[in-house]
Design goal:
Lipase_N, alpha/beta, about 35% helix, eleven-stranded mixed sheet, about 20% strand, 11 strands, 9 helices, globular
């Protein structure tokens, strides 16, 4: 992810200007028909014995598998990652311990790699393909409230676009999207049509761990959690570490769901002063639920296990 540092300071307006100059905006790539990557986009069924790969757009079997599943969890990796990368390897084994979930991972390694500007545009096309796929799954009988997408970085915005597409095609909303430090470069201060937004699922919760750098700073969910203030994480010294810490927190929350209570507050400064206006607590991670939307803050430890329990909520 380090290759996008020059983009961070550019801001989204300059990002769009640069993409326009190189012919890489969403509209330009539609016109040039340069987004025919259906064969390159796979979805894996994650099992204890390894991943079983299916093509997202051509495999009818995977549609049947998901249509008949109970709660479906789809993991979506970020830039220069894969369905067999660090994020999926960190989160999937914990989810597999739960008998109520069937776990999948979208694999866009051949698409969102190497060149960030192009990859940030591909996010919208990938999200639309995933949303079309899920729309068919829902039409085949799957309850949309049982579909749960967990995305990291660019994967968070893919999840958001997929949620929009599902709503367009079915008139229904996905059950939940958890966004793990949604990518910031080229996505801050832009229209919600091309990024994650709180309207993309019945419940959208966000963990910000490198806000303002590799991650988006503004709140985009029903509940936005800012551990350690949201910009830098204790024990990290580079942004890549901060950015990845969001999925590490989430992975820990699956086996220890009460580890991350967070306090609703207006900002990190007031949280540090124990001056939050509302005495409300919500859990960050898998245990997060609807009710009392807003900003939530907490402190964590510098190494695993990261959760501090009630001591972290001030």
């Amino acid at each position: 992810m380090s290759v996008i540092y020059p983009v961070v300071a550019a801001g989204s307006n300059r990002c769009e200007a640069l993409k326009s100059f190189f012919g890489l905006t969403y509209e330009q790539m539609q016109e040039k028909n340069r987004t025919n990557f259906h064969e390159a986009l796979n979805i894996d069924l994650i099992t204890a014995n390894g991943n079983i790969k299916f093509n997202l757009t051509t495999s009818k079997r995977i549609q049947r598998v998901i249509s008949k599943a109970g709660t479906v969890v789809i993991l979506i990796h970020g830039f220069m990652e894969s369905s067999e990368g660090w994020m999926v390897h960190g989160v999937a084994p914990e989810l597999l311990k739960r008998s109520d979930m069937k776990v999948f991972a979208l694999d866009g390694r051949k698409i969102i790699n190497l060149e960030y500007f192009r990859s940030s545009t591909y996010v919208r096309f990938i999200g639309e393909l995933l949303g079309t796929f899920l729309g068919d799954v829902i039409k085949n009988g799957q309850d949309p409230s049982k579909i749960y997408i967990v995305g990291h970085s660019l994967g968070s915005h893919i999840a958001g676009v997929a949620g929009k597409k599902v709503r367009e095609l079915t008139g229904q909303l996905l059950g939940r999207i958890t966004a793990l430090d949604p990518a910031g470069p080229c996505f801050s201060n832009v229209s919600a049509s091309g990024r994650l937004n709180r309207t993309d699922a019945e419940y959208v919760d966000v963990i910000h761990s490198n806000a303002g750098m590799l991650g988006i700073k503004e709140p985009v969910g029903h509940k936005d959690f800012y551990p350690n203030g949201g910009s830098s994480q204790t024990g990290c010294y580079i942004s890549i570490c901060d950015h990845s810490r969001a999925w590490e927190y989430f992975a820990e929350s699956i086996s220890s769901p009460k580890n991350f209570p967070a306090r609703k507050c207006e900002n990190w400064t007031l949280f540090g002063q124990s001056a939050c206006s509302k005495n409300e607590i919500s859990y960050m991670g898998i245990e997060s639920d609807t009710g009392s939307p807003g900003l939530y803050f907490l402190s964590t430890k510098s190494s695993s296990p990261y959760g501090m329990g009630s001591a972290g909520s001030g």
